[in-house]
Amino acid sequence: LAKTTQPISMDSYEGQEVNITCSHNNIATNDYITWYQQFPSQGPRFIIQGYKTKVTNEVASLFIPADRKSSTLSLPRVSLSDTAVYYCLVDSSASKIIFGSGTRLSIRP
Amino acid sequence: SAVISQKPSRDICQRGTSLTIQCQVDSQVTMMFWYRQQPGQSLTLIATANQGSEATYESGFVIDKFPISRPNLTFSTLTVSNMSPEDSSIYLCSVERPDDGQLYYGYTFGSGTRLTVV
Question: How high does pLDDT run on average in chain A?
Answer without folding.
Answer: 92
